[in-house]
Write a structure and sequence with these properties.
The complex is a heterodimer of chains A (245) and B (576).
Chain A: E1 3-10, E2 20-27, H1 34-45, E3 64-67, E4 70-73, E5 87-90, E6 97-99, E7 102-103, H2 106-114, H3 136-143, H4 153-157, H5 159-163, H6 170-180, H7 188-197, H8 200-203, H9 209-213, H10 220-240
Chain B: E1 12-18, H1 22-34, E2 40-44, E3 60-61, H2 70-80, H3 87-106, E4 121-122, E5 132-133, H4 139-151, E6 157-161, E7 163-171, E8 174-182, E9 187-198, H5 219-226, E10 231-232, E11 237-243, H6 254-257, E12 261-263, H7 284-296, E13 301-303, E14 306-312, H8 317-324, H9 326-335, E15 345-354, E16 357-359, E17 371-373, E18 378-379, H10 391-413, H11 419-438, H12 447-461, E19 465-466, H13 468-485, H14 499-523, E20 532-533, H15 541-544, E21 546-551, E22 558-563
Parallel strand pairs in B: 1-2, 1-9, 2-6, 9-17, 16-18, 19-20
Antiparallel strand pairs in B: 3-5, 4-5, 7-8, 8-9, 10-16, 10-21, 11-15, 12-14, 13-14, 14-15, 21-22
Helix pairs in contact in B: 1-4, 1-10, 2-3, 3-10, 5-14, 8-9, 12-13, 12-14, 13-14
The chains are: A alpha+beta (245), B alpha/beta (576).
The complex binds flavin-adenine dinucleotide and FE2/S2 (inorganic) cluster.
């Protein structure tokens, strides 16, 4: 039987003050993903190994981790891409660790709330009058930015977030952009104020790491770029016409 | 280290919703809109946007088009249910469905659109016309995120993310809250509330081969059952005809709705022999049986993970597949290593959905005052013996909203519950968890091994085809597994994010519900919808046109019967 060596960074604040690594050699099969390996260890070798997962089909966003240094969805990353080499699994970079491979993502949850990710309108149409019409082209303007699964992979790849945690970050800005681009929404100004008030966005130098690692091809870098252009436009407009435009 | 209890004043709400999937979030918003002063809590063992609603692909049904009618949606649902649905429930459902889907549109859900800007509809199994609204093939994902993001604007909705509910607090016969484990700290808390609404989803993890995520462990069903509420029609477990062998990843029915064909190893569209009138658009129970028969009679392919047939999309063309089924393409490329644009997809029936659940009335009330249920965990019953695809997401919205409002109204009439009243109950739960798991010294059973044995017996005895003998075996095995569970020892005795403990608590829930499924199936000596008994191949309206309510007793479930409500569609032979 083929085997593969998996090394995991472990950390339990109850019993150790520092993270340490632990290796496991487990049976290997062609169709195993990294998450299967972790589950194998958890079920058959060491029940204390701690990680998050749920759907095992790349859609719930729970299982983001560093695999040999790259941020990945472990349920969509095959061992065969590393075999016969070894696989090293670490918690997502740039986040505090709760335990083993479980990161604390409460910072993102706060940021999500901040950008007001819901349809904002001055007037609601009554339900009896049916849907808001939206052409396929209008839908396509924002569809891509609505695909984010909140897996946090872009944050762990973002150099700006790495040194400044006050940065709203790729996923949150992409989501704000998603609502801004939606023909049903009128909340642009409110969101612009929030996005503009965060320093980080000006530090983003378009390295585009977020877009490169995104498993859903959301392209947060484009969203950040467009938000910047929009903010600059508004800044100039308010400077030229301080009474509003 | 023992788990300690918090200060008694903490954590008290008007209405507490367990679950942050489509049903739970819809309920929370509905409750918030009943009265802005209501204090609402949503407790979920995962962040709400991770809930398994996220994985729903195909769509949500409602009558939105001129060529459709409520009558037709109603009849399709009742016929699909093999005449076991309660028809007053069906009528409410079809009437409210359209406004719920429009509401989601107003909340920003990116429904796919026709060129004139209207919401598109697609074909689905067992539906006479195109009435399934969709967001490409990630419908559940978009619905869940739209609901979750919209819920954020209601500041009166307080969330307990990654808290695991371990028991219901029942005081003087009323439900007055829950005990819940805060995974991050490992503390067990009591959260009191005037009303508790269970929206905990289904329990596909009871079976080995399932489309359901690891979190779908029937928790809510077990919680209610233990507290004395009835589980209804638990024998009806839906197999979806098209899952990927091995992983159980779902290939949505929409791929057949868009024109995909099922082929056996002779290249034959074998459904011709089973359901020529509907072919690939037949209901799931019939299609799953057809595939199993092809497998049993040697006309299926054989692979590493057993028999399978082909789902062929190649004639749809790359453009349609990319436009309508991009997620299917991505999943198949990733997990099977072939491209469905050029090659057929291997598929086989897979456990998908539970028609049964916590017995409720049309507003979500259970038999315990203050305890309600909605979504997949509940059984009202809308789906009877077989659910039609795309009725479930809509069910979560319609009955999530109704029961959210019902719970809110009920809560407004109740006196506040004090933590003192439940202190001894919470204490007892804390001791139970410590004694049974965290501080247990002996024990030689492993959670994972018991779970595997449960899987084996469920697949063997409670699968697509069942016999009295097989079911009896499952009942016996499950009884023994429950006894052996007492001897479980977990590896992890820590407090912080103890998923080993969570897994043990989930397995305990599943064993109880599994036993209920097996006994319910044994008691129903007929074939109807998803229950196919080889020893009783006919449907028997004389003997079994009723619901089975199961109540927990130390000797196993005790059954009562409840008549089916029939309003407009008298039972007849189920023909397609
Ligand atoms: C792969 C797949 C595809 C599907 N496609 C479709 C489709 O196209 N159309 C359709 O109509 N239906 C579809 N279904 C069915 C439908 O998606 C589900 O029935 C529905 O989403 C269930 O929603 P829910 O809100 O009831 O539960 P879920 O979304 O499962 O949410 C349950 C919630 O309860 C919480 N919870 C559970 N136990 C506990 C506990 N002990 N403590 C605290 N919290 C707890 C969870 O954290 C979660 O938030 C599909 C199902 C699957 C599996
Ligand atoms: S487990 Fe859901 S994305 Fe990986």
């Amino acid at each position: 039987m083929s085997t593969i060596k998996i090394t995991v960074t472990r950390y339990n604040p109850e019993t150790s003050s520092e993270p340490f690594t632990q290796s496991y050699t487990i049976p290997y099969k062609e169709d195993m993903v990294v998450l299967d390996a972790l589950n194998y260890i958890k079920n058959h070798v060491d029940g204390t190994l701690t990680h998050r997962w749920s759907c095992r089909m790349g859609v719930c966003g729970s299982c983001g981790m560093m695999v040999n240094g790259d941020a990945k969805l472990t349920c969509a990353t095959f061992l065969r891409d590393y075999y016969p080499g070894e696989v090293q699994v670490d918690p997502l970079a740039h986040f505090p660790v709760i335990r083993d491979l479980v990161i604390d993502m409460s910072d993102f949850m706060d940021k999500l709330l901040e950008i007001k990710p819901w349809i904002i309108r001055s007037e609601e149409k009554p339900l009896e009058e049916g849907e808001y019409l939206q052409s396929p082209d209008e839908l396509n303007l924002y569809k891509q930015f609505s695909m984010c699964i909140n897996c946090m992979i872009c944050y762990s790849a973002c150099p700006v977030y790495g040194h400044d945690q006050s940065f709203l970050g790729p996923a949150a800005i992409a989501l704000a952009h998603r609502y801004n681009m939606d023909s049903r929404d009128e909340g642009q100004d409110q969101r612009a104020e929030i996005i503009g008030s965060h320093e980080g966005i000006w530090e983003c130098t378009f390295v585009g790491e977020c877009t490169r690692v995104c498993p859903e091809h959301v392209d947060p870098a484009a969203a950040i770029q467009r938000s910047k252009v929009q903010l600059t436009k508004e800044y100039f407009l308010s400077w030229m016409w301080p009474w509003g435009n | 280290m023992p788990i300690s209890l918090p200060m008694p004043e903490e954590m008290s709400h008007d209405i507490l919703i367990v679950g942050g999937g489509a049903a739970g979030l819809r309920a929370a918003i509905a409750a918030a809109e009943v009265d802005a002063n209501l204090d609402i809590a949503v407790v979920s063992k995962v962040y709400p946007m991770r809930s398994h609603t996220v994985s729903a692909e195909g769509g949500a049904a409602a009558v939105l088009r001129e060529d459709d009618s409520l009558e037709l949606h109603g009849f399709d649902t009742v016929r699909g249910s093999d005449f076991l649905a309660d028809q007053d429930v069906v009528e409410t459902f079809i009437e409210k469905a359209p406004e719920e889907l429009i509401q989601l549109e107003h909340w920003g859900c990116p429904w796919s659109r026709d060129s004139n800007g209207r919401i598109s509809v697609r074909a689905f199994g067992g539906m006479s016309v195109k009435r399934t609204v969709y967001a490409s093939d990630k419908t559940g994902f978009h619905m869940l995120h739209a609901l979750f993001q919209t819920s954020l604007k209601y500041t009166q909705i307080r969330r307990y993310d990654e808290w695991f509910v371990s028991s219901l607090l029942i005081e003087d016969g009323k439900c007055v809250g829950v005990t819940a484990l805060d995974l991050e700290t490992g503390q067990l808390h009591s959260i009191v509330a005037k009303a508790v609404l269970l929206c905990t989803g289904g329990g596909g993890q009871i079976f080995p081969f399932t489309t359901n995520a690891s979190i779908k462990s029937a928790d809510g069903m077990a919680l209610a059952y233990r507290a004395g509420a009835a589980l209804k029609d638990m024998e009806f477990v839906q197999y979806h005809p098209t899952g990927l062998p091995g992983t159980g990843i779902l290939i949505t029915e929409a791929s057949r709705g868009e024109g995909g064909h099922l082929l056996n190893k002779e290249g034959e569209r074998f459904l011709e022999r089973y359901i020529p009138g509907k072919m690939e658009m037949g209901p799931r129970d019939i299609l799953s049986r057809a595939i199993m028969t092809e497998m049993n009679e040697g006309r299926a392919f054989e692979g590493e993970y057993g028999g399978y047939v082909h789902l062929d999309l190649t004639h749809l063309g790359e453009k349609t597949i990319d436009e309508k089924l991009p997620f299917v393409r991505k999943l198949v490329v990733k997990y099977v290593g072939i491209d469905p644009v050029h090659e057929p997809i291997p598929v086989r029936p897979v456990v998908h959905y539970m028609m049964g659940g916590v017995s409720t009335d049309i507003n979500g009330n259970t038999s315990i005052p203050g305890l309600l249920a909605a979504g997949e965990v509940a059984c009202l019953t809308l789906n009877g013996a077989n659910r039609l695809g795309s009725n479930s997401l809509t069910e979560c919205l319609v009955f999530g909203a109704l029961s959210g409002r019902e719970g809110a109204r009920y809560a407004l009439e109740q006196q506040p519950v004090s933590q003192n009243a439940v202190r001894s109950l919470a204490d007892k739960e804390q001791k139970r968890i410590a004694k049974q798991f965290l501080e247990k010294e002996s024990g030689k059973e492993r959670v994972a091994s018991l779970q595997e044995e449960m899987h084996l017996t469920m697949e063997k005895g409670c699968g697509v085809y069942r016999t009295g003998e097989g079911l009896q075996d499952s009942c016996t095995t499950l009884g023994k597994l429950r006894e052996r569970f007492a001897d479980v020892a977990i590896d992890d005795r820590g407090r912080i994010f103890n998923t080993d403990l969570r897994g043990a608590l989930e397995l305990e829930f599943m064993l109880e519900v599994a036993e209920c499924i097996a006994h319910s199936a044994l008691a129903r000596e007929e074939s109807r919808g998803a229950q196919s008994r080889l020893d009783f191949p006919e449907r028997s309206d004389e003997k079994f046109l009723h619901h089975q309510l199961a109540y927990a007793t130390p000797e196993g479930p005790r059954f009562e019967q409840q008549p089916v409500t029939i309003t407009r569609w008298p039972p007849e032979e189920r023909k397609y």
